[in-house]
Specification:
7 helices; Elongation Factor Tu (Ef-tu), domain 3; 487 residues; 4 domains; disordered N terminus; 26% helix; elongated
Amino acid sequence: MTQDPWQSQTQTPQDPPFENQQAGFEGDSVLPPDQDGFFTPAYPQQQRLQMPPHFNAPPPYAGGVNPYPPPVTPSPSDEEPPDDRMIYRAPPKQRNIILWLYISLAVLIIVLISVAASQFFGRQETKTAVVTISEQGTTFSGRTMIVRNELVFQQENVSDVRYSAEEGSAVSRGDPVCTVYSTGFSPRELERLQSYRNSIKDYHKVLLGAATTPDAQLARLETMVMQRAQETQALVRGASGNLLNQEQLLKEAISTRHSYLKQKYIEDTKLTRLYDNENSQLQRIETWTKQFAAMDNGIVSFYTDGFEAALNSANYEKYSPQEVRSMLSGTIPESAERPKNAIDIFRLVRQFDWGALMLADDLSWNPVVGDEYRMLIESFESTTVMVTVESVTRSGGELMVRLKANSAIEPILYTRSARVQLSKSVITYAVPASAIINQDGLIGVVVQYQEGPYLVPVEVISQDATQAHVVPVNAGHLYEGLTVRLF
């Protein structure tokens, strides 16, 4: 039976059944009630004590009776009853491999289309590039004729040459270089002169031995001669000093002593006759000899190649590329050929003023006057010097470059022709190759200034399929960081 809201949830003792109430009055003995029994009196025939009335009983129900019991509502509880149901697990669905393959292909196609579209539209949008600075090295090679600032001395009808200066030595203006003897001169003339001088020397000893009083002046002069001779020998053995100057001092000391002896015994007739014989022989020899001295400061050399008169700083600019090609093959210009009976005595080479005539191998090279290059001379001892482009001549399919140098002459003192390499490091500006345009024969790049696009003329130093290295024709019109248009 369900409880109404007005009923208490506390269990109240129920009245005994009607039969038990009547039997309670019949017997005298009373048994204790059974707490576990459904009916309290176990023996109805026995009389039990009358229970006190319960005053908390509800009033009797006067409504109708529902013959159907109400549905049982489970009471709430913290602990749920054990669930004997089994969880249903659906069988795994079979994956469709072909479907996933189609999906993957579709995704791949979408990605490829997106990448292609982004590149296409990006290429359309990328119309400019930024100018960057770069260093570009260039090398040009060719054959070269060396041009020195030199002067060659020639003499006809020469029989002998006696050199006073050393080969490759530096001389000053007026220094003796050599003595040249002409045809007809015989070495016996020098032998006869030496015999006269030996006779004078021996007779001096006789006169000095016969002297009874010492000569202080003569002793001082002889001491000076011995001192100069010892100093000269020390220089020959390797001491530091100028040997030419020392030899000149020795000659002056000997000449002073000789003049003193001649003046001292001027009244001696035999000595006077010996001096006259010496002077006559000297005059005879001078008719066949010629003294050469340095006309300027420079380096003296006795080795010549025949091109000294043809190639020097005074006339090298007049030659054409074809004439230089002929000289490279060993042909001397007719205008510079020496006389038939003349020979080269020596040449005097001036320092720090020389050049070269170069026939370039690369005919597409466009050398600029005033540009500096490092020139490597390929010889037995490779020499590197700095040269400057002086002028350029194109003729007959040849490119000739005149080069000027201002360095020491010793490394190329004996070099006339050689192969050379010119190298140069140029600061250039790198731009994409597509930025180079040719507008009415003018090569340049279009620079995006704030005022608008302008064509800047440039010279292309080098170019490949993707990049070009250029320099502006007008300095300052192109520099790093500018924006150029691409075409």
